[in-house]
Amino acid sequence: MMNDVSGNPPSFQSDKPRDLLEAARALARASVLVVGDAMLDRYFYGEATRISLEAPVPVLCVQRELSLPGGAANVVRNITALGGAAAFVSIVGDDMAGSDLTALIGRQNGVEPWLLVQGRRVTTVKTRFLAQGQHLLRVDTEDPVPLHHKIAERLLRIATDAMAATSVTLLSDYNKGVLAGDMPAKLIAAAKQAGRPIIVDPRGEGYEAYRGADVIMPNRRELATVTGMPAESDEQIMLAGRALLARFAIGAVLVTRSEHGMSLVTPDEVWHFPAEALDVHDVAGAGDTVAAVLAAGMGARLPLPIAARLANVAAGIVVGKVGTAVARLPDIEARLSPETGDHTKIVTPAAAIEQAERWRRRGWRVGFTHGKFDRMHQGHAHLLEQARGACDRLIVAIDGDEPPLPKRSLGRPARRAADRAMALAAQPAVDLVCVLEEESPLAMILALKPDLLVKGSSHAEADIIGADRLGAWGGTVLRAELLPASARGNGRVASDTEI
Fold first, then answer.
1. 288 is catalytic
2. Annotated binding residue at 219?
3. Is 259 one of the annotated binding-site residues?
4. Do 389 and 265 share a structural domain?
5. Is 222 marked within a binding site?
6. Which of 218, 236, 284, 340 is the most exposed place for a label (fewest CB within 10 A)?
7. What CATH number corresponds to the domain at position 448?
8. Residues in domain Carbohydrate kinase PfkB (predicted)?
């Protein structure tokens, strides 16, 4: 049977927004064992405005450095971003990069790390150099030889023991040595013995090692290579997927298809999930996100098509971010919410901060304002138009439905936050809207670092929250003029608590 999830597939009933929201929230109940190749992702951001005198290459003036868990460690990072728990079994080298990676993983909540150290082994590091948001160079340091047999035996023993405490096992194979040789076959056999489902995110062409897995996750090119069959159209994906299942006794195959989304193939049914991305910035780490959400979904005992659908939504979120990113549960909820599903301007505060960083890398000025915006009127529109005219992108934050106690004396907004957010999202001058539950917007201002902070002219600059902090990054204040009552038409002016 061929099903397209862009419609209403008859084979499962939970493709409704509210059902998917409940399914997404169940991901936090998952407990996943991840076994695979841990890496350290390093990023150097800066500007390249001149050419070296030593060679015809750009000179990168580094302004910021960032280190993140990569490879299988990024899968773990994605699982914890969903609120789930993860046991992580992997190898690092006896070097500074290994120490840095171990510390990064150890600082994550919900992770039980089992990182074995192998002497004389080099920890895998991928170092990226970026100028104005564009990649200049990537440098890889790695030692992809198979593990020493004693280390391999210990790793297998630890992973087998960890299966008893987790609900699903995920093998994240980056072809860096952890899952070399017969290690995948031994882990699959152990999972079967423990009664745990096992997922494989594969690399290379040697799929015989993955025989018997419950789910395998090749991309379209890998599927074509392994099966020797074309894998472009929906029909070809179905035929090649079923050939792979039959050849290696695998339960299901989830094929990632780039701009065409994903396809889930079982011996009896096929689901095609259209791509969910709104704006593609960086595909790095998207496969890790798919693997993490699929594993968490299976660990939470969701139907496989629902887990795959959520994985597709999460992939659409991370490719809109820069670098090795994750899809947090609030991001997925915002994308699936019936109130915000059709309003792509409405995002979480964290997503707004990430988007602002992408805009600044393009050289755009980012503006920010905050208020109740209880009843949208002409005065609000006038203020927002002034703000947008003074910057390239404007982010608006509104109070949530349950203001903290000090604010309740000022009165709770009459309209629900979802309704106010939708009204703001309909304004052409507004680029993003988010809801703040905190009493003060200061924390978001400090994280966002807006180039322009906007308030109504009824506020003295000294009284504007965050105005005294803008100098740290060169930001400025705009005290926008309010329309007089005579120009409003409804006899009201914007109050201090609104903007």
1. yes
2. yes
3. no
4. no
5. yes
6. 236
7. 3.40.50.620
8. 30-326
